[in-house]
## 1
Amino acid sequence: MVYFVGAGSGAVDLITVRGARLLGKADVVIYAGSLVNPDLLTYTKEDCVIHNSAKMTLEEVIEVIKEAEALGKTTVRLHTGDPSIYGAVREQFDELAKLGIEYEVCPGVSSFCGAAASLKAEYTLPDVSQTVIISRAAGRTPVPERESIQALAAHQATMILFLSASLSEKLQADLLAGGYPGKTPVAVVYKATWPEERVFHCRVETLHKTMTEKGINKTALIIVGNCLGDEYGRSLLYHPGFSTEYREATE
Ligand code: SAH
């Protein structure tokens, strides 16, 4: 059996209870060494065989899983954050399906949720934005033209940019060209929930300068939008004048 497990955003106690239990019973663990906190490996059994996928190809990962399966072993494939976000999991699922190997997925706390906690932010504020756009700047990995930063920026929704820390100059230009006013608040969260986490607040017009000055060019999220500002509407859900399925309005 193979379990794809979300490791969470960094802090070792942000893995789910299920994920930690699966790590505890794994005979083989393949972890994404570039981003998964290695301290998570302390949840494994003493005789667990550990592979770092940062140094492996997809073919090598599948080979390790195949060999473990042949011996009836349990494999955990440990991905950073939640596997569904830039996890390159689909290609693994499909290879395993072709080989008739069963697998399950255990979700994790994505770094964008970890970052929200660090920022004490709510991404979906009434009267500000009810939409969260998760995307990335185009780099060596292309992004479909219809999803360009400029096109997405036109919505002025809350935007969370993964994998873009080294591309801040173009990113800033595209955010502005797309329609975010230069004063729109931005937060850069480096290694959210790790012990070495750092948070920087700036504006769209000062994004590149801030990232260059602070020397942040990887393992960071760039969060853009007025949800980071001070103005918002009150939620209807908890408003005394609003009836819900559970509560009658009192005014
Ligand atoms: N599946 C992961 C994302 C993997 S893509 C998730 O759900 O979070 C790798 C990118 O995620 C990094 O380049 C960075 O932009 C972001 N990232 C991952 N962990 C992070 C963290 N703890 N803090 C800030 N950004 C992080």
## 2
Amino acid sequence: MTTRVVLGVSGGIAAYKACELLRRFTESGHDVTVVPTASALEFVGTPTWAALSGKPVSSEVWHDVHAVPHVQIGQHADVVVVAPATADLLAKAAHGLADDLLTNTLLTARCPVVFAPAMHTEMWEHPATRANVATLRQRGAVVIEPAEGRLTGADTGKGRLPDPAEIFELVRGVLDRGADASLDLAGRTVVVSAGGTREYLDPVRFLGNRSSGLQGYALARAAASRGAHVTLISANVSLPDPAGVSVVRVETTAQLRDAVVAATATADAVVMAAAPADFRPTAVSHAKIKKAADGSAPAIELEQNPDILAEISHDRARAEAVIVGFAAETGDATGSVLDLGRAKLARKGCDLLVVNDVSGGAVFGSSDNEAVVLGSDGASVEVPHGSKTALSHVIWDEVVRRFAD
Ligand code: CTP
């Protein structure tokens, strides 16, 4: 069955980016009805929306009145996405005003609603907008955090519309969970670490590992699509920032540790999907290490890095927070992959451990994964081979189950 998407566009300069979002929906087979506000049409005109969506476009309730569009469009939608959502549109939606087709549609829709705000930083931070966003979130809407960066003029700050490709991914995540899925992470603050740390030997060389960051980014996206406030601590990952997620960039295990410990103070859940290097060179050369004339190789002395997962689990900032670790294991003479996973769960002191069998080296850089989620309560959930997004949702399901306990 074709999925019916309503794309609401309100009057901000980022309206032009909604054209790309619209294309992504139509090219992936969605049926899209574009409902721009009159102000949006000042930025991008009706012919553009009509041509890209293949449908007539209206801003008002007075066109095709016999078809009752102000009720029909919202009632039949599988998801309503408003991108960009201006401060004015958020205010109207929060207060239930209905003076055009888009605001009427928002009142009649019973499907998930996603707002992607874009505005100047001052407007986003104004107490009126904060209150309106809080109201909408509390009613179950997903309000994506704007991205930081260059705004309309020369100034920079928080308020940019996230990358349309990432808004698309987030909405797809909402749709995949179905109309009945609740935004069960709404109001929750979660922290995800992703990628692999680098330990520098000198200004150009480092010890690193093969982590791509794909699993951590999938976890962050999945949490955002379930309504969470997400901080993604990213170590050396070259993937686009997920929509609505605050990304903190780090390089070394020491930096990752500091960022995770700081973010954990207010977190309801922490998922350590990053692969921190366990060792770092004892001394970092400030100049590039030169080859010796006699052909000898330098000896590299290493020292152990802090174990972040063990530290935040044993010395908890918030007793009720759910802490999740990952374990990439290969079975050996001392035990099977699962035996080693159980032992690691106990050693690290976390609540859940996602155990991957990496004997073949297959998971690195792959979009798929296969795992067993072990709980400190004895639970064991097998996740069959599937996408890293599917595994992410199982992990969040297990986290949410523990919130309820
Ligand atoms: N981890 C961490 N800090 C480290 C190393 C690992 O927080 N210095 C976290 C990883 O993010 C992951 C989990 O610990 O969630 C398991 O990582 P793994 O490398 O399998 O653990 P090790 O401690 O290296 O395991 P072992 O004791 O088998 O060496």
## 3
Amino acid sequence: MPEPAANARLAAVQIIAKLKEHGQTAYLAGGCVRDALIGAKPKDYDVATDATPDMVQALFPDSAAVGAAFGVVIVYFPATKGRTRWVTEVATFRAEGAYSDGRRPDEVRFTNAEEDAGRRDFTINGLFAEPNPDQPDDPSADTIIDFVQGRTDLENGVIRAIGDAGERFGEDYLRMLRAVRFASRLGFFIEAKTSAAIRAHARYLGQISRERIGQEVLAMLQGPRPALAVDLLQQHNLDAATLNEDLNRHRLEISKKLPARAHVPTRLAAWLVDRHGEQSQDARIVKRWRSALALSNDQRDELNRLLQLMPTLHEWANFSLAARKRLAAHPNWDQSLLLYEAIGGDALRIRKEADAFAGDGIGLHPEPLINGDDLLARGLEPGPRFKTLLNQSYDLQLEGKQVDRDQALAWIDSQIG
Ligand code: ATP
Ligand code: MG
């Protein structure tokens, strides 16, 4: 049994140390090297090695060959306290054959580190790091192994495809979305040839599964520069295949105005209004986006509600107090105001008013004074009238015209009398 590791990096470093004890080459690889160099926290630590999957499994019995055909073994490592174990992906250095379906190599061949770097997507993702055994927990003590000039690109903030950009995107169309995701996450610039190759291949993106497209796009919208992501998608002609609609060159006025606390459905709504303006209420668009991005029911419903709230907010001043309180109690209220403000509406005034309602002694959504049982007790049959009476009574309550149960019941009696 190996010694427990205090964190995910140390688990990977110990795996590397053991592989090296057995005469193998092993490095930290890809995203974790990139992130450590720019001072970001790596999501996970991947190891790349010349040991075959069989050797890795023999050395680490607590492991699983998840992608044996691709040379990937998941190694579980005991953790100290709290956590049960660390999960590290250990992949054998590989070269990839042709991608006849544009998403998965037809075959892989095990090889050396340099060739393995060469099959990766972007130079900043093609770096390896050899930990310093004396400073295992200090990434700045690692030796960086760079076959692809990834370090310079990382320092200069450049996303550059490794090798021939056109070929690389032709092998795997998803890389086009990855380029945009990394550029927007890191605030990097997509190098000219890489950028031109994306434009040239953009129309083939639709050959990738909708789940994978949606996953990348939602990840971009969750990142630190969602408006840049949307802009880059449009600049690279990726919007059409991404959304299953025509290319659109409208300016992203609304997307750019949303504040950082806007959620993903709010960002989708802003993008949709930027693209479709007056037509945004057309339910077919949300339907199309839902299938194009494989949105969940919840995401779709929230997107619909946000869009539907826009014209309503426009009419805010004309609504009764009860109607305004009902709106302000809406689960998407806060996000809808962010969108409304980005569209140019006077969200501040509405927000102030709604805040005042919340503190008026009655509140936005007080417990109803009466319920269906009270109507049943009065001999009323459940039905449309039932619901209307309860709603009307609640409106009066929200407006402060029914302040206690007796008053509410008396009102009901007056209605059914
Ligand atoms: P993230 O922080 O988003 O996980 P990452 O760079 O770790 O970023 P992963 O998808 O976890 O990305 O992949 C790990 C590594 O595998 C990448 O750094 C890259 O070297 C390589 N890789 C992943 N996807 C591809 C791809 N589609 N084509 C080529 N190489 C890829
Ligand atoms: Mg990763």
## 4
Amino acid sequence: MKRRKCDVRMKYHEMEAREVEDTLNTNRHEGMSEEDAQKRLEQFGYNELVEGEKQSALLLFFSQFKDFMTLILLVATLISGLLGEYIDAIAIIAIVLINGVLGFFQERKAEKSLSALKELSTPHVTVLRDGEWKKIPSKEVVVGDLLKFSSGDRIGADIRLIECNNLEIEESALTGESLPVQKTVAAIKQDNPGIGDMENMGFMGTIVTKGSGVGVVIGTGMKTAMGQIADMIQSAETMTTPLQRRLEQLGKILIVVALFLTVLVVGIGVLQGQELYTMFLTGVSLAVAAIPEGLPAIVTVALSLGVQRMIKQKAIVRKLPAVETLGCASVICSDKTGTLTQNKMTVTHLWSGGNTWQVDGIGYTPKGDFYRSEKRVDPKKEKTLQQLLMFGMLCNHAEIHKKNKEFIIDGDPTEGALLVAGMKAGYSRPSLLNQYEILEEFPFDSTRKMMSIVLKDASGRRFVVCKGAPDVLAQNCESILWDNRKQAMTQEMHKSVNEAIHGLASQALRTIAIGYKELTNEGRITSEKDAENRLTFIGLQGMIDPPRTEVRAAVRECKEAGIKTVMITGDHVTTAQAIAKQLGILNKSTKVMEGKALATMSTEELEDVVDDVSVFARVSPEHKLKIVKALQNRGHIVAMTGDGINDAPAIKAADIGIAMGITGTDVAKEASSLILLDDNFATIKSAIKEGRNIYDNIRKFVRYLLASNVGEILVMLFAMILALPLPLVPIQILWVNLVTDGLPAMALGLDRPEGNVMKREPRNPKEGIFSRGLGWKVISRGFLIGGVTLLAFMLTYKGDPNELAYAQTVAFATLVLAQLIHVFDCRSEKSVFARNPFGNMYLVWAVISSVLLMLVVLYWPPLQQIFHTVPIAGRDWLMIVGLSAVPTFLLGFTYLARKTK
Ligand code: ATP
């Protein structure tokens, strides 16, 4: 392991915390002023690591022409120009250029939307500005800012720590050492320490694994330890999806097939007596038209447009492959609190020593009365109730503010609810803090399911106060407050506590228990293990957390789409059960499993029963990984939500890892492939729907483009076999490639989902692009499009060379129209009649403009010369329209006939 020396910051770790604040002109109570921060930002720049060179626009433009066939076409055109075919040469070059420009814009758009995505998922940090803690994008942090962070956060800049609560930071990105480092605030007087030895510093990009802290920023951007080692900057995630890779492979095969067929066309043409030079140019144009070189770019555009639509629905895709996997999801494992429920907690019931109180008032407004046996009581006269409320406020990390006449909780809503309950009884945390000093704090963690503090009162007595999941906390109690005094916990009392826990939980209340112990010896409590034992049980606070209104419908919609919803929660089994029933997650055929049972099972044992379970309660984050594995082994494609640092392994292992945008830690977000900006379950459903739609749209235009290409090649091939003249001239082939294959294909990418998108089973991830009849559709429609075009040509061309240009024009018009009608067929997996043709107005306009462009080519004399076209007579239009409708409608009617049978 290489230890890096970090001399730039030497003076900061040697200084006392106060000195650092003075040197950097900041202070721990007010932080920086917004004004100073702005000035520093302008002077020193953003807090970001400079990225490597991007591909320049010019390079991207030229890369559009590096395709082998395009190069040959350009050379061939050059030759034809030298031979005197100026008009042809210029026209072909113009078309190639326009094609290049279109390709350039498509790729640019794809690139831009991908970098916009990156921007959206950049982390935010909490800084103190003008005395107020604020969340800002981490790139706006300046030297002198005070940074607050807790377990799961990534440190946003280099800092000198000034406050640590059991803080541990994992610095392996810098030191290679995977064990977290315990941090302190004391100055270090060691000569030239390595990064790993600077225990009073935090470094940009490292991860807080435990506790919380505050630090003064001493370096940002490239002036951080991370900035100094540019090669360690994480490279971007892979951004191609399995489908893109499969299409790329398919593209290679198609190139070979298209080239083979082109050579065949040229070979047969030459044998049949066509001129070699004409056949060469025809062959190259055909190859350019038939090779779907633009397919990957259109796929990227379709993916990124879909991703933008998802952003509007509050889902950010971090890894593009997730878009595809979303359409395959068969199970969604969702957290309860905040995702299925609103995470707006209000304490409604309290229990202590056999007594139950009720509190009224909703939300965070601290107004409400207390009742016992339906009679109003003064909470300050009920002794144990007082203890319960006061300790709930002290063992607490949340803050409450009034903003625009509304009360807002800063911190964990569970803790916010405890603050509000205390305030309803007339207590306030600041005045309690005047009576009690907090000596230590052991933050909440969802494996322990508890939080504790060590308190000192005015007379110097010290207490541990502990709050947590009641069943867990009760196990650590040996006594209980009953009849206003501490008593050994009898069997009877234990039973009574359990009944109270169940009573509250069965009303779907989230319950928190509070316990305490007085410390008699002098020793300092340094770990939660020492704190959380031999406690005295004080009582319970039960809070409502209403389900999100939209979730019930979303769960039902998922069920119809063949997707099972599983609730995974740290909450009590009865609470979980009650809410799962309300939401339609739990029904007669599914079961609830507890974390305890899960812990003793092997993954194989779990596999046998996992399909029947729809609620996992009292689980720890570590169990989530086991659940993901078991479901995956059963052949499921699993979407798993999470927010904490311990959720990261399960999020990573899931097929679609989902992190919470609001409550999620940086670590969870970085492990995820999808972030829910609103933490809402219904957003997952919307994202799945969009994922299915994107995949459908990709299938639509793959089908359209390939069927068109098959048609183009076949018309030429059949003509050569039948010893006919060329039915299309090269420039016409190129025009078809540019216009018909361009806009309508893009418009298909913007199509809305077909009505049944959430009424069918999830897609099998192993299925190929041509499955579910797509291959047959491409071949059959391609044959028909080629066939009718040739037929139109043969019906018009009777052997008179003077009629050739006319017949070619008719063939050209038939090919174009047949493709433009077929594009409507591609919108549905069933038939052209299954959807309203005006349902996608982009497509309607794309088709109208393509038709208009075709008419211009046919009827505008300057273009007639270039495209070798002749005006078509009215009577022939009837035949053209009739023939071009055949490929689509023939098969449409066959479908209808089969359906009515
Ligand atoms: P999810 O449903 O998202 O898994 P959860 O809130 O149900 O989340 P945890 O956050 O792990 O699960 O909480 C588990 C239990 O720990 C809760 O049922 C509650 O009793 C207790 N608890 C929750 N928050 C706190 C806290 N801040 N301090 C002490 N105990 C808490």
